[in-house]
Structure formats: structure tokens, C-alpha cells
TrEMBL record, chains A, B:
Its main location: membrane. Pfam families: Ion_trans_2. Residues 298-317 are annotated as: Disordered. Belongs to the two pore domain potassium channel (TC 1.A.1.8) family. This is Potassium channel subfamily K member 7.
């Protein structure tokens, strides 16, 4: 495959990705624009009605000033409504949820740190904590993957499947299992706990949390009328869900990423070049250098290069 | 190293991680609790003053009703204040930023989709788009890593550095470069553009975006008084910053993750076990199975197992 062809494919991939970004934006615009305008119109109408009915009593900018204060407070998670106890915002379960939100990069809206100390600590904590979390996930992966591999190995042996097909089957099975346990089941539970409402909304919240996009802040806002014990139990349940669910997601993603089919797809867009450098990452083959100094006979790395197509390659060992 | 010892280490790692979560929560609580309570007290005072002065004019729950509506609208990015044009919320630059926020899982607060169509599309788009983005990053990585490897290789050759040391030097250099270009420089620019304000705040915003935690929504909210052209340019600049900056972050993280020192650290917590299964990921050694069928002489995978310590291992090829 010529150099030009692969660069062309690479270019198409990037352009395609940017197009997909643009198209997604257009679809969101089409779906969300009208409801947003409608909500805005409604809000304007309410404000206008309020002003019309009671504007006489109020000095010119008093209401705006109050609204300003109330809205600003909300962006820091401080509520103006109800009898929310003063301690609720940063009681330990809430603080744990916030911290987990930082570590998992979910970052639910509405609770950005207020104080400079909080912002600096958030920076430092994330800078140290995110790599540490990645390391923990890597360790957990080493422990769990052999366990997760067994069903696939059993299927491969039992039905004489090609390794690639068995791998795909296993990855898909894992995906469905994780989706069922961490997306559908919690969504149904949440739906029931909310006493009806919308199942789709519950599914959306679960996906939003697990993908770490983190738009919706379900519990902290709407739980103000709940029994405090139940509210805290709910927070701890959410915390456990975030940590376990995210771990499950990462393991599933890794399993898919290492499928020969996925590697082939990625390899399709990569110009043919010696696998050695990319394979070892970082500096040109630390391991390769080690190999060179120790064994002069071996001239090619024995790892199956990720860039190679999915045909079972017999490494030249 | 005995089986018990490594499980103990593994246990310590997990417990240590959970302790770090708890300690982080306690620190955030200590730093943020008082300011939040103070803000809440301020807000209560404002509401009380308002009620005291003008409460006579207003029927019992009118103000609460209005505040409710206003606050709810804000969580969907609809503003009650100023002369924000109706179209601004989901004009194309805003929609692009939102979509990029989904794809990068940054998820800035305050703009959760309103409509059911929007939520469903968000779900589907993220489910398809996130893996696609990972694939694109993998491809970009294949292209960029050889380029990024050259300084390290040069340094290794020039100063006769051990491969591991050169790799660490290179990774650190890359980290500093990325930090400078994508954190410090934009923060300073942002700081100047804001006309003073806080440099720390600007740095915090940059880190918040790049780590995809996504608490602060700098531009969309505060830009309402800006010239529309400048506002849109700012949005597009933010978009480019998010995409490029995140790519740079991911590449840097990958470079660090593949350092022998990091592998050693991870390997410290993994029980000693045959490297074959874990190494190939997914199903027990697709490549291993291939090896078995093709070459019966080779009894051990030739890859340098990630679980091994950082001593230059000579694989038994």
C-alpha cells in the first residue's frame, strides 16, 4: 500500500471525524434549538408577568439583582429554595461524591469549587489523582482480565472457533453483561425509586455518569425533600455505582480495543512503517535496545504489531 | 515473591486509593464547607431582605415560583438575564462546543439536553462517537509518536543514556512542553483577554477543560455582553483548544504510561503469573494460540511482559 494512499486514508479519517462533529452539532441544534427557545420565551413571559403585576412595588434593578445572586449561587451548588440544611452541601457523602467526580473526570455540573483553596486543591488533587487512578485500573485489569478471558477460551475450545471470532464473541458478551448490570439494571432501579417518571431519563442519567460526561446532577438537587438517611444512602449508592461502573466500562473498552478486528481497523489508517518504534511507545524501543545488546541474532521484535492486519501472524521468533 | 505478599500489596493499593478518596473529600469539605455556608447565609439574607421590603406586594409563593423557573432554566443553559438573543443558545458554534463536550466527555455543566430527542441522540452519539474518537486518537498516536520519540533517541545517543533514563527524560520533556503550550500559554492569554482578573482562575479553567472534568463554563455564560463576532471567535478558539489540547494530553499520558518505571510500579502490585494471558489482553493469547499452531518450539511469548520489573529483561527468544 503506497505512502500516498495511506495518507489519503488518514486524511479521510480526520476529515470524517470533524464532519461527524459538525453533523452532530447540527442535529443537536435541530433537536434542542426549538425547545430552548420555547423555554426562553416561557421564562421571559413569566418575568414579564411578574414585572407587570408587581413591578410597581419593586425599585428598578432589585429583582435582577436578586436573580443574579440566586443564579450565581446555584452554579456553586448552593440552593435558594426549601429548607436545605446549611451542612448539606459539603457533608461527607456530598464531598465524597464531588471528589469521585474529580477523580473519574465526570464533573457533575453545579458544584464548581468556590474558594481559591478549593480550586487549587482540585487542580493538584486531579493532577496527582488521575494518573494514580489509571495505575489502579491497570492493576485491576491484570487481575480481572484472566478471569474475563475464561468464557471466551471455553467457547473457543468448545465450538472450535477461530481465536479472532472467539475474542469478538467474548468482547460482545462482556459488553452486554456490563451494559445490563451497570446501565439497564440501575436505570430500572432508579426509575422505580423515582416512582415512575421516565425510564429513558434514568437510562440517560446512567449513561451520562458512566461515560463521565456528567451533565445531570440527579441526586444532589432533587433529594432535598427526602429523609436524610435515605438521601445519604442514595449518595453512597451513587458513589459506589460511579466507581464500579466506571471500572467495568474501562475494562470493557480495553477488551474491545484489543480485538484483532479493531486493530485491523486502526491499522487500515496507519501508514506502513516498521512496527518496532510505535509498538514500544515512547523512546524507540527500550525493549528493542535491550534485545539488541543481548541477542544479536534476533532482528525483529517478537510482539505482534498492533498495526498489522488481523491475519494470524506467526512472529519470526 | 510469594502469592500472599502480592495480594497484600494489591489490597494495600486498593485501600490506599479509597483512603485517598476519603482524604480528598475531607480536604474539599474543609476548604469548601465554610465558603459554601457563607454564600448560603448571604443568599438567605438577601432573600429575607427582599421579602421584608417587598413581601407585602407579593402573594405568598410567587417569588418562589419565579425563582424555581429561573433556576430550572439555567440548568438547561437558558438565561433569564440581559438581552441574550433567542438564537444564541444553540447557534452553530454553541452546538459545536456542546457536541465536542460530549465527544471528549468534558460535559460542561449547565447545558444538559432539554428534549427527549436531544437526550436520546446524546446517548447514541456518545455511544458511537466515544469509541470512534478513541480510534482516531490511536491513529494519530501512531503518526505522532515516532516524531515525539526522536528527541529522546537523540538524547540517548548523544549522552549515552540508559534507555529507561532517556525515556523518562523524554516523557518529562513532553509533559512540560504540553503543559506549557496547552495550560500556561492559554491561561495567560485568557487572563489577559479577561482584562486582569485571576491568573489562577484561568489556569484552573484550562486544567478543568483538558482533564475533561468540566465544571466551569467560562465562555457561554459570561460572554453575553461581548460583540457577537468576538464571542463566536472565542467559542471556536475554545473548541480548537479542547480538541487539540485533549489530544496532546492523551498522547502525553500514553507516553508516561509506557515508561518502564511506570510499568515497574504497576508490576509491583500484580501477582506474579505467566505474562502470556495478560499481555495479549482479551481472550487467552490470540497470538499465543497462533504461535502454538505454527511453531511448536517456542514455549514463551517473546514480548517483554509489562508485569516484569524494569531490569532490562532478555526475552528467551
Amino acid at each position: 500500500m503506497g505512502g500516498l494512499k495511506s495518507w489519503a486514508r488518514y486524511g479521510f479519517l480526520l476529515v470524517g471525524h470533524l464532519l461527524a462533529l459538525g453533523l452532530g452539532a447540527a442535529v443537536f441544534q435541530a433537536l434542542e434549538g426549538p425547545p430552548a427557545r420555547q423555554l426562553q420565551a416561557q421564562l421571559r413571559a413569566e418575568l414579564a408577568t411578574f414585572q407587570a403585576e408587581f413591578g410597581a412595588c419593586l425599585p428598578p434593578n432589585t429583582l435582577e439583582g436578586l436573580l443574579d445572586a440566586v443564579l450565581a449561587a446555584q452554579t456553586h451548588g448552593v440552593s435558594s429554595l426549601g429548607n436545605s440544611s446549611e451542612a448539606k452541601n459539603w457533608d461527607l457523602p456530598s464531598a465524597l461524591l464531588f471528589t469521585a467526580g474529580v477523580l473519574t473526570t465526570t464533573g457533575y455540573g453545579n458544584t464548581a469549587p468556590l474558594s481559591w483553596g478549593g480550586k487549587v486543591f482540585c487542580l493538584v488533587y486531579a493532577a496527582l489523582g488521575l494518573p494514580a487512578s489509571l495505575a489502579v485500573v491497570a492493576v485491576l485489569r491484570h487481575h480481572l482480565l484472566p478471569v474475563l478471558s475464561r468464557p471466551g477460551a471455553w467457547a473457543a475450545a468448545r465450538w472450535q472457533l477461530a481465536p479472532a471470532r472467539a475474542a469478538l464473541l467474548q468482547a460482545t458478551g462482556l459488553g452486554l453483561l456490563v451494559g445490563g448490570i451497570f446501565m439497564l439494571l440501575p436505570a430500572v432501579l432508579l426509575w422505580q425509586l423515582q416512582g415512575g417518571g421516565s425510564l429513558l431519563g434514568a437510562i440517560y442519567f446512567c449513561f451520562d455518569s458512566l461515560s463521565t460526561v456528567g451533565f445531570e446532577e440527579l441526586l444532589p438537587g432533587r433529594g432535598r425533600n427526602l429523609n436524610p438517611v435515605i438521601y445519604h444512602l442514595g449518595q453512597l449508592a451513587l458513589l459506589g455505582y460511579m466507581l464500579l461502573g466506571l471500572l467495568a466500562m474501562l475494562l470493557t473498552v480495553e477488551t474491545f480495543v484489543e480485538l484483532p478486528q479493531v486493530r485491523a481497523l486502526v491499522g487500515f489508517f496507519v501508514p506502513s512503517s516498521p512496527p518496532i518504534a510505535e509498538d514500544q511507545g515512547g523512546i524507540v524501543g527500550q525493549d528493542e535496545l535491550a534485545l539488541r545488546t543481548v541477542s544479536s541474532s534476533s532482528s525483529m521484535s517478537c510482539t505482534a504489531p498492533p498495526a498489522a492486519p488481523a491475519r494470524e501472524q506467526a512472529p519470526a521468533c
